[in-house]
Specification:
Blueprint (H helix, E strand, L loop, with lengths): L1 E8 L2 E8 L4 H8 L18 E4 L2 E4 L12 E3 L12 H8 L9 H17 L17 H7 L10 H14 L5
Parallel strand pairs: 1-5
Antiparallel strand pairs: 1-2, 3-4, 3-5
Helix pairs in contact: 2-5
Pfam families: Fer2 (PF00111), Fer2_2 (PF01799)
Pathway: Alkaloid degradation; nicotine degradation
InterPro entries: 2Fe-2S-bd, 2Fe-2S-bd_dom_sf, 2Fe-2S_ferredoxin-like_sf, 2Fe-2S_ferredoxin-type, 2Fe2S_fd_BS, Aldehyde_Oxdr_Iron-Sulfur, Beta-grasp_dom_sf
Length: about 170
């Protein structure tokens, strides 16, 4: 069954007619030609399709497009401002935190979500003191980014790339 929806992606509204079974990932890639989120496993296990949905990270392969409603979808491309790369983009380049680059857009969206979660004080599975402010240590970054896999094993560079931005933005380290 087809239905009409409007997806707000990276600040622009896109009216679409989609099958009710269409995932957000497929709507982004196949209908809107937004190649930022990647189709990796298509089962929510690799994180290559990670986008932000009203600022919270989601695996877009697990979200039906018809359920998005008025939420703002932000891809890695949408994190840029006025044509300037986001600090995470610059940090990933500076730290060589990508190799083939396939997982990079999902990694960057996830990292943006990690920074917001830390600012909001949300603990993770490795947060030592649940009553204290979250400190975004390397262990915290690793845990919070664990849903994003990299086949090239750029992990040793991803953690410092995220840590650099956290420090520059005043997220407690």
């Amino acid at each position: 069954m087809d239905t009409e929806i409007t997806l707000r992606v990276d600040g622009a509204a896109h009216p679409l007619t989609v099958d009710t079974r269409t995932t957000l990932l497929d709507a982004l890639r196949e209908r809107l030609r937004n190649t930022s989120p990647k189709k990796g496993c298509d089962h929510g296990q690799c994180g290559a399709c990670t986008v932000l949905l009203d600022g919270r990270r989601v695996n877009s392969c697990l979200v039906l497009a018809v359920t998005v409603g008025d939420a703002e979808v932000t891809t890695s491309n949408g994190l840029a401002t006025d044509g300037q790369p986001h600090p995470l983009h610059r940090s990933f380049v500076r730290r060589d935190a990508f190799q083939c680059g396939y997982c990079t857009p999902g990694q960057i969206c996830s990292a943006a979500g990690v920074l917001e979660e830390a600012r909001a004080g949300w603990p993770s599975a490795v947060t030592a003191d649940l009553t204290a402010a979250v400190e975004l240590t390397d262990t915290e970054i690793r845990e919070r980014m664990s849903g994003n896999l990299c086949r090239c094993a750029a992990y040793a560079h991803i953690v410092p790339a995220v840590a650099d931005v956290a420090a520059a933005e005043g997220v407690r380290r």
